[in-house]
Amino acid sequence: MANQDDSFIREVNEELRSDQMKAIWARFGGLIIGLAALIVLGTMGKVGYDYWQETSSSQSGDAFLAALDLAKQNESDEALAELNKLEQEGYGSYPVLARLRSATLQAEKGETEAAAAAFSEIGKDSRIPAALRDAAKLRAAYLLIDSGSYEQVSAEAEQLAVPQNAMRHSAREALGLAAYKTGDYAKAKSWFQQIVDDTESPRGVANRAQMLLDVIAASGRV
Hints:
By secondary structure, the chain is mainly α. The chain has a single domain (2-219), classed as Serine Threonine Protein Phosphatase 5, Tetratricopeptide repeat (Alpha Horseshoe). Helix content is 79%, strand content 0%. It is built from eleven helices and no strands. α1 runs parallel beside α11 (203-219) and α10 packs antiparallel against α11 (203-219).
């Protein structure tokens, strides 16, 4: 990851004197979102695993593992069918984990709109632990950066971007990227600056935010 970040920094620095913001986004936007999404997925996996450990059930666990195996074998439709069944009939934590995995599979299949909607619904379900709800909202926000509007991203992420929330760094990044993509560079600058100014921001997130602040400054548009 360090080598990838270093390579990314070098390439962006070469573009800093350019005024072609759309070209920069077309070149680097996917990588930025991809790196950020990895953090969100890792957080979701950790929280989900802790939740699973606390409320495991053997029969539902076997069904969940079987669905994961189908997904690994690229049998997505079969995996989704098993996960949907587990959502309805599973025990303990497994219906929630099945919903999360189903939404992830939809995203992997390119069904971005459906996946974002599924994560959004999970984020609104008060029966689900708060940490999982927040992770689902954040995942929805990242999916909506490319497929939705800034307002849609904001509806998912802005409530997480407060100082007390552990996911605020990624939430601010999602909001900044959404604003950047729509050409609202002043708003993007505000979100990225909040990341840079927060001493608790992870280094990777802070580095990406600083690079995009440099790009915005070099454009002379703010």
